[in-house]
Protein: BTB domain-containing protein
Organism: Rhizophagus irregularis
Amino acid sequence: MSARLLRRIQIWENSDYRNFVTMRLPKLPNMGNFSSMLNNSDDYDIIIKVGKYQNIKEFKAHSNILRARSQYFKYAILKESITKEDGMIILNKPNITPNTFKMILE
């Protein structure tokens, strides 16, 4: 059985700068393996800081998985303009809320 991946992602903000996301993605057979890695902070090599002001959250992730599953991260992680601290890749995304990013990351 093959899974057909249909992606429809809409992100918008209201006047209070709250992000709203609508996503429609089928569940693929190996998604459980990736989800377990998301909750496992061992051996992560990237920290993504999202949000602004008092609503900032850090997400620890595996850059290889992000690059393999997302064209955006494939190029964003390879850019020379990213910050590296002690060998750790740091991406700052103040334009997206932690809740929105969590849904995208999952």
